[in-house]
Amino acid sequence: MTFHPTFHPTSRLLLIAALVATAGAGCANQPQTSATAQIAVSREAVSNAAGADGMQFAPAEMTAAREKLTRANKAMVDRDYQAASELATQAQADAKLAQSKANTAKAQAVANALQDDIRVLRDELDRANAAK
């Protein structure tokens, strides 16, 4: 029997960031390495938010995250590593907000459905007790 560990998406983000940061720890291009790690983490955050239906429930935040990630990638090409890192951090924050909004909206929909089910059950109980 083979054991296949699974990782939570956040753990995967941290692992990617740690690997990228470790790989470049000895490099003279520390700002580039740091920006590269930030972009990788932000890309994963945007992907996770999209997978959580971020575009449906938080389209403004998802659009902002994607635009900032695009700008961060352009800053990397332009070798503006500080701007790239800052934009990637902002993209990650926007993506996390989008994912949180999507998760909240879905949880609220489930809660509303449960409340409706409870109301229906109470109404049925009331009718059954009134008929006695």
From TrEMBL:
Keyword Coiled coil: yes
Stretch forming the signal peptide: 1-28
Stored Pfam families: DUF4398
Gene source species: Rhodoferax potami
Coiled-coil zones: 88-131
Organism superkingdom: Bacteria
Keyword Signal: yes
Protein name: DUF4398 domain-containing protein
Domain DUF4398: 37-113
Keywords recorded for this protein, A-Z: Coiled coil, Signal
InterPro entries per UniProt: DUF4398
